[in-house]
Amino acid sequence: MSRPVGWTAALLACLAFFAALVGLPFWWVLTGSVKLPQEIIARVPTMIPHSFTLQHYQKLFSASDYPVYLVNSLIVAAVSTMFTLLLALPAAYAFFRLRFPGRALFYRTILLAYAFPSIVVLIPLFGLFAKVGLVDRLPALILVNVAFALPFAIWMLRSFLAGIPKEIEEAALMDGASLLAILRHVMIPLIAPGIASVGIYAFISAWTEYVFASVLILSDAKRTLPVGFSGIIGQYQIDWGLLLAGASVAIIPVVALFALIGRGFVSGLTEGAVK
Amino acid sequence: MPQSPALAFAFVAPALLFLAAILGWPLVQALALSMQDVRVIGSPGAFVGTANYERILAAPEFWRAAGLSVVWVVANAVLQTALALSAALVLAEKFPGVRVARTWIIITWIVPTVVVVVIWRWLFSTSGGIINPLLVQSGLIERPVGFFATPWTAMATLIFINSWRWFPFIALMILAGLLRIPGDLYEAARIDGAGTWSRFRYVTWPLLAPTLSVLAVIGTLLSFNVFDVIWLLTAGGPAGGSRTLPVLIYETAFKGYRLSEAATISVLATVFLMVFAVIATRTLEKGEAR
Amino acid sequence: MRTMLKAALAGATLLTPASAGVAQEKIELKLWHMEQPPHRVQRVQELIDAFNAANPDIVVTQEPQNWGEVYAKAPAAISAGQGPDLLFAIPDFTPILKDIGALTSVQDFVEELDAKHDFVDSAVDAYSYDGGVWAVPLYNMAMNLWYRKSVFQEAGIEVPTTWDEWKAAAEKLSADGVHGIGLPANKQLYTDQTVYSFMVNGGATEIYNEDGTLRFNNPETVASYKFYADMHKLSPADSTSWTWGEAEACFSSRSCAMVLQFSVIATYDSQAEGDANDLGVAAIPHAEGQEGHHTISYANAVMLLSKHEAKLQAAKKFVSFLLEPENYGRFLNMEPGLFMPVTADGAKAESFWSDPMVQKYRSQVETVIKNAENGRLFGFTSGRTFPSIAAISAQNIIAETLQNIVVNGQSAEEAVAAGQARMEDVAR
Asked: What is the pLDDT of residue A269?
């Protein structure tokens, strides 16, 4: 494969631009978190740290419940992902393949779930959860996160299903397989990358959710990472070192997770394709 | 395919019932709330009919916020799509490390919003932030500027930050569309003597347009709802310059203690969005049918 | 053993539905406060542990909250029956909870404590209206002018006492990328506080007339805003988005020569040079023709929310415990130099003055306490307290008025008139 020199140069320039746009902020945060306080707020910032200290991390872990927040976030995100997939898969298949009255109407209504400001439901939902004793409990967050990820998940899964050649399904049907069997043994394996992508989408949206977690959770022991993180932003002082250390710690777990399954996510997305 | 509607309902019902309970029911409650005069959550209210609607529709703050929401949504869509499309075009090329690049570009999206907020607040700040000194050194500005200091720079900065967070995700969606375009189409165009630009204009663009329009609709709805980034960075300021509708709703409910008026604004915003969504999906479906 | 017991109890609370009002042997108290930085939480925990150990029949637990969210969360949690038994407050937060019927007057309790410890009167005043006292004062915060003595010396500047001197000093100090003064102009509580600090020193202390009508729009207010906007021109460009932290960072990094702040001691000590002899603190200068220096002071307090008699008694026990001189200093020093005593015996308490940070910055702390004596709080002055102050304060209309001048370019007269109109609107 050969490209004109000018083209290669342009490509390189673009790559450098995007690498800087995405990478440099993270570089400054990670390096900032090991600088001494004086260097962090110095009037002329440094690109490469001139000092090295772990004091901010020590402070972070000695004085706040970061590990607890981390575990809570992982629980909420993982369980939300599972439920999103459990609800979205059959629904997506039904909307894609099965005939039933009101199909088009229901499908549209589901997508309209994004057509209102989510803050709207915050107060009534609080009341609802209060009645059933879910306030200040992680399941409340799971329910909310599933509700917000579900419509997009159904929509994405449906388009992944649409990418499967009809002949495969028909062949299975000719063999006398039941609908459930087709779904389980034919369709699901075929769209596995798509499921991975939707799963990651659900995971990340639960992982990053802030507003509902901040209001529905009352006690420190049940806070998620975003809310716990916002808690170390003091009211009267900003300890940038502590904040940058907190930011780094909040970044690292997802990065680790992503290092394991990120490739699957991307190939799932790019191969399954959106229609 | 032969099958009973009962089975289909069994497939769809759990998801539908779930959404009805967690989103639908509260929405109905918000509608009821909008016709009362509740101030603080937990306090009683009386039925006031459409009084709240009359007040809100006459309030300049509401229309200003609605206008800012439109600016927010449109600017985000333009900037995100521009960044995402160019990133996707780069990532569709073959070069060493392309897989790594495709995987890790998404990092801006997997970081919690609160963390994104802190990162950029620090980078943009005038004490310790790196952006001002860089701009001063490169001679673009003379003195450090306050990015959140004036209404329009604050809005622009917020739009940049939100787009920064979302563009890689959209880039990957576009990339998916790009990779599906068969290579022989480009080959044929090349043989016909088409240059880089005309190949993009006549091959890539038409085939990509459906993906882009679907993303545009969903993206519009999603970015309209963005609240945390704005609230945590500027709280709608300065001087209301970034007070979009979701911010106004939150402010009215929790700072102004007019819960019912907040519900009213929500209902009105929902109506706008629904109208947009219905028109947009209709247009899309027509486009697909053609 | 205690940790095991605590863990077991924590486990038990997890399992018990909150609504179950089963008779328990131990009285459990939930404390919400907004002192969220880790080291403050830690200090509060130490005091709670000591209290729980001394009172085996009571178990206090703390849940730190965020000021930004608690306004939404507390009413919601209370209406859901999940509210705390003790909730920290600032004066403008209390009317909201009083309005939804969550509070009962603690007048007798405050009088009892007053007889014992002698409260600073203004601290009690901020919670006394509508025939009751609605919270127990716990600590005070007052704004001061912070500077570096060496910087003043180099520039040949005396500590300013009037606005003219202050402005001259700020202008002289603005050189070489240093801002003479760092003043916020954000629509946020910090700006409310600094603007009001100008107003009280410019003869515009009262924002209500005696009959509850607003008198915000008057020549003294306009003059105070004018002067503030003038001084603000010397502040960094991003000060329209400042909260307390940015101002402190600006001072610590020597980018701002002067700031108005409750206290900069903690950050100055940890993030700047930490030279106690060089850190200057003074009362806020006043307008020409005004007498004496005033400041904004915020008496923080604790509200007792439990309707359950046994819990209420236990909560009172805990509050009494905090105000005991031998504990009180340790409580205040959760953030040394920021929280000032609201009781006479607290101001003398050994536990307060023996803290190493307080010892190091003793002269500054003494000045801060002295300045706080002339503290006022908008909407809580001269007994003219009306419920609408909650909305006026929550929507930061004082700060919004300033933004209309420095961001939108309105004249001070226009902006103050519009500010009064806004106040009247939210008061409806």
From this structure: 66
pLDDT tens digits for range A21-62? 998 899 988 888 898 877 877 767 777 888 888 888 988 887
C10 and C110 in one domain?
yes
Q: Do C187 and B237 touch (CB under 8 A)?
A: yes
Out of C100, C101, C403, whose CB is closest to B237? Answer: C403
Enumerate residues 6+ apart whose C-beta is below 8 A from C27. Answer: C57, C58, C59, C310, C311, C314
> Which single residue is written with the structure tokens 């298949």?
A93
C82 Cβ under 8 Å from any chain A Cβ: yes
Residue B49 lies in a domain: no
Q: Among A43, A96, A123, A200, which would you mutate to test the B interface (most chain B Cβ atoms within 10 Å of its Cβ)? A: A123
Q: Which one of A98, A111, A246 has the shortest CB-CB distance to B11?
A: A98
CATH of the domain at C166: 3.40.190.10
The number of distinct structural domains making up chain B is 1
Strand bridging mode C58-64 / C86-89: unpaired
Does pLDDT of B104 surpass 70?
A: yes
Closest approach of A6 to chain C, Cα-based (Å): 42
Q: Could you give the number of structural domains in chain C?
A: 2
Instruction: Give pLDDT tens digits for C370-428.
Output: 888 888 888 887 777 777 888 888 888 999 999 999 998 999 999 999 999 999 988 77
Residue B288 above 70 pLDDT? no
Domain-terminating residue out of C341, C372, C403:
C372
Tell me the chain A residues in contact with residue B8 when contact means C-beta distances shorter than 8 Å.
94, 98-100, 103
Q: Which residue of B has its CA nearest to C71?
A: B254
CA distance A170 to chain B (A): 9
The CATH code of the domain that includes B106 is: 1.10.3720.10
Question: In terms of residue numbers, what domain contains C137?
Answer: 2-141+298-372
- Whether C51 and C321 have beta carbons less than 8 Å apart is answered as yes
- Give the one of B112, B127, B224 whose C-beta lies nearest to A208's C-beta: B112
Residues C269 and C327 in one domain: no
Contact check, Cβ <8 Å, C77/A218: yes
CA distance B198 to chain A (A): 15
User: Which partners does chain B have (≥3 C-beta pairs < 8 Å)?
Assistant: A, C
Q: Are residues C395 and C317 in the same domain?
A: no
Q: Is C405 helix (H, G, I), strand (E, B) or coil?
A: helix
Whether residue A274 is predicted with pLDDT greater than 70 in this model: the reply is: no
Q: Which of C280, A265, C286, A31 is nearest to B103 (CA)?
A: A265
Higher pLDDT, C70 or C410: C410
CA distance B236 to B72: 12
pLDDT 10s digits, C138-162: 999 899 999 999 999 999 999 999 9
Q: What is the pTM of this model?
A: 0.86
ipTM, two decimals, is 0.85
The residue in chain B having the minimum alpha-carbon distance to the alpha carbon of residue C76 is B41
B 43-82: CB under 8 A from C = 43
User: Which residues of chain A are within 8 Å of residue B221 when distances are taken between CB atoms?
Assistant: 114-115
Q: Does residue B167 form part of some domain?
A: yes
pLDDT at C57: 93
Contact C407 B127 (CB under 8 A): no
Provide, as residue numbers in chain A, all residues whose Cβ is less than 8 Å from the Cβ of B276.
115
Give the distance from residue A224's alpha carbon to the nearest chain B alpha carbon, in angstroms. 11
Q: Are residues C33 and C11 in the same domain?
A: yes
Q: Answer yes or no: do C243 and C283 share one domain.
A: yes
Q: B76 lies in which domain range?
A: 59-289
Do residue C221 and residue C162 come from a single domain? yes
- B218-253 burial, b at 16+ Cβ within 10 Å, e below that, comes to bbbbebbbbbbbbbbbbbbbbbbbbbbbbbbbbbbb
Chain A residue closest to B246 (CA)? A117
Give percent helix, percent strand, percent coil of chain B, each to the nearest 5: 75, 0, 25
Q: How far apart are CA B29 and CA B23, in angstroms?
A: 10
Contact, C302 vs C87, CB < 8 A? yes
Residue C274 and residue C315 in one domain: no
Q: Verify that C318 and C365 share a domain, yes or no.
A: yes
For A230, the token pair is 């916002």
